[in-house]
Amino acid sequence: MNINKLKSKMALYGDNGGDLAEYLSISRTTLSSKMNETNGAEFTQGEIQKIKERYSLNGEEVDEIFF
């Protein structure tokens, strides 16, 4: 997980953690855990797809951020 790349995309679109958490229908705490990979927390495929769509990510960007 490349948290800095995700944060830069969020900033580019004017989003903060609360905005993205609301969009994904998860708590801000859960989002933070997933972004920081705390206790093995990971984004689901569905969440990755939603993030891809929200920030118009291409396949390479998805790979750079999540894998």
Quick rundown:
The protein is mostly helical. About 65% of the residues lie in helices and about 0% in strands.
Describe the 3D structure.
- This protein has helices spanning 3-12, 17-24, 28-36, 45-54, 59-66.
- α2 packs across α3.
- The mean pLDDT is 97.
- The protein contains five helices and no strands.
- The protein is mostly helical.
- It is globular, with a radius of gyration of 11 Å.
Topology (elements, then pairings):
Blueprint: H1 3-12, H2 17-24, H3 28-36, H4 45-54, H5 59-66
Helix pairs in contact: 2-3
Helix run count: 5
* Averaged pLDDT: 97
Number of strands: 0
Helix content: 55-70%
Inertia-based shape:
globular
Describe the sheet with the most strands: none
Q: How would you spell out the order of helices and strands?
A: HHHHH
> What proportion of the residues form beta strands (DSSP E)?
under 5%
Structural class determined from secondary elements:
mainly alpha
* Unreliable residue stretches: none
First and last CA, distance: 6 Å
Rg over CA atoms: 11 Å
